């Protein structure tokens, strides 16, 4: 077997070898490292400290992290630093140090090996740059999605005479736009139109459908006095694209408020959407289901169910999307459910629109996980406003 | 929030001795003091803590707005004193904590009996005739070093330390958390530390003050210690026969002795 010369191995090893006193003063250094630095042995031994060989930033890092850690652990491994060479150039290196102790356990000197990391560091810089770029792109996407979502919702909701309103939108995902929507808007004759719906799916196509649904409903409501006819219009528009890849259907409740002597008469039409809840002034909670209504946009001739009821002072009408009852209550598969929601609302009633929305927003914060977006809109008649 | 949890406060030393609050600098945590606590604890009650964002403090309490200047850190110090009802405190601040102490003492002088500034610098950047020792580019270089060394934070980096045979009192957990912090927080703290300028606050200190510096210090050179002492009325400057920015590690006996004598004078 070939025997390597130990002195030659020390001096011309493919790494820098360095021994320093505990205060960092260089005691021994090999040829490889001197060649990298461009110094002669006499220029460094006994004259320079290890930190003098580093860039200023590296020196700060050495003083604040490297030296304290080495002191505590007795060794430190693979730290990325830059050498400052005699000609002023920088050389990226990876540094490993161990403290050599004497027989009595007292530290004697520090042994350091230094590896050329020029190519590796160039590669790491690329990675760092790429990860910063990716983070910036994600941030941009989050902003874009939040803005787009916001633009699909009315802000603020107008307030009909003698009423209070409240609404809340929870985005389940920060980078995928959801498909819930709602609106409240004046019609002629003191009437008001309102709706809350949920386009299936998420993402840009769902967002486009959401926008189409919102404007179709508002436009149709200007011409059609009957809520069922308004929903039929929306069904036609969405069904036209049935065979295209961008087809989406939705569930929705559309309603019209007509002023009466004691409050408003409410007519709602529904297609496949959870029943609005009427929280009465006397403390009772009434579901107002539109049973039999089918999804809007998936059938040429949908079933659209209609019902009419009246609201008076102290009543609150709540519309919500199914993201609320379908929220997870724990790590398992348990969902919050309609029953729990009813119990929650019963404790809340009687209430007002802003209070109800605030309470439900608080409730959402306590649920384990919201997989889907949640839209909430509440209208309450308080009898204290005026007609103008 | 309980300041004890937020700032990972620990007490050690003599129960009824004067309260000495040891405040670590940028980089590591309260374990920076471990070589001097035995000596200091002989006569004093020592309060050690981690700055929010460092060591084993509550990382969720870190708020980029509150900690965007040293004032946020000084507020933490005062909150600790108030919540634990501490009086006649002797505050010992290392490195950037020296200026945190200056701000706290200037704000509520009645709380404090003395101030020890260990390797302080009121301003690291050269400006006009003032020599802090660094340029903006140097600080950018440090931030780069932090970027390329997510020290102990990334799993790949964390060296596995098989105990510490020389110092069995240092548990694995402690060794692992020392000098580790979230890279985002570390960078923010580095910016606040090295870009702050507290020169104007030095004359506001109205309590007995000891400035302790190392004979050789790449971060806070002797001229800077002299500047600090010259601008704090009545302060005393002592140069330790020590090398490096952390004399409590490189010259623990001398450092502890200097602090102990000062504490005795303050009583």
UniProtKB/TrEMBL annotation, chain A:
Gene Ontology terms for molecular function: phosphatase activity
The keyword Plastid is annotated on this UniProt entry: no
Occurrences of domain PAS (ranges): 2-54
Keyword Hydrolase: yes
Gene3D superfamilies: PAS domain (3.30.450.20), PPM-type phosphatase domain (3.60.40.10)
Record protein name field: Sigma-B regulation protein RsbU (Phosphoserine phosphatase)
InterPro entries membership: Bact_Sigma-Reg (IPR052016), PAS (IPR000014), PAS-like_dom_sf (IPR035965), PPM-type-like_dom_sf (IPR036457), PPM-type_phosphatase-like_dom (IPR001932)
Signal peptide location: none
UniProt KW keywords: Hydrolase
Automatic annotation (TrEMBL), chain B:
Domain AB hydrolase-1: from-to ranges: 20-258
Stored InterPro entries: AB_hydrolase_1, AB_hydrolase_fold
GO terms for MF: catalytic activity
Pfam families: Abhydrolase_6
Source organism, top-level taxon: Bacteria
Family: Belongs to the AB hydrolase superfamily.
PANTHER family on file: ESTERASE-RELATED
Entry protein name: Sigma-B regulation protein RsbQ
